[in-house]
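Tip: read the tokens left to right.
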């Protein structure tokens, strides 16, 4: 009976290490995800001229997602857009909350 439990315990341990190793190996570096960078930055740019509160909230959320995922990435275009978003997102949030309080 001890041998059976020992074998199952060893198999469970090997399975746990295998699962942990494969999930770490599948993690993608966000800085190399240019399609994702382009999609989020384009979403912010598309929503920029819209003035309704729903579009403004979506723009703020997309900007926050961009900063969270790609804000620390090197590269001129990523760094430039991140530096644009960092001071402007709080301004957009203040403007949106002002519009909600007013309306």
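Filled-in amino acids:
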């Amino acid at each position: 009976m001890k041998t059976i439990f020992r074998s199952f315990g060893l198999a469970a341990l090997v399975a746990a290490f295998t699962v942990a190793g494969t999930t770490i190996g599948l993690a993608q570096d966000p800085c190399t995800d240019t399609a994702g960078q382009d999609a989020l930055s384009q979403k912010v740019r598309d929503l920029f001229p819209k003035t309704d509160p729903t579009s403004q909230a979506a723009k703020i959320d997309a900007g926050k997602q961009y900063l969270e995922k790609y804000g620390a990435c090197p590269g001129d275009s990523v760094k430039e857009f991140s530096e644009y978003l960092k001071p402007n997102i709080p301004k957009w949030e203040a403007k949106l909350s002002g519009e909600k309080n007013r309306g």
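The mean pLDDT is 84. The two ends are 72 Å apart (CA to CA).
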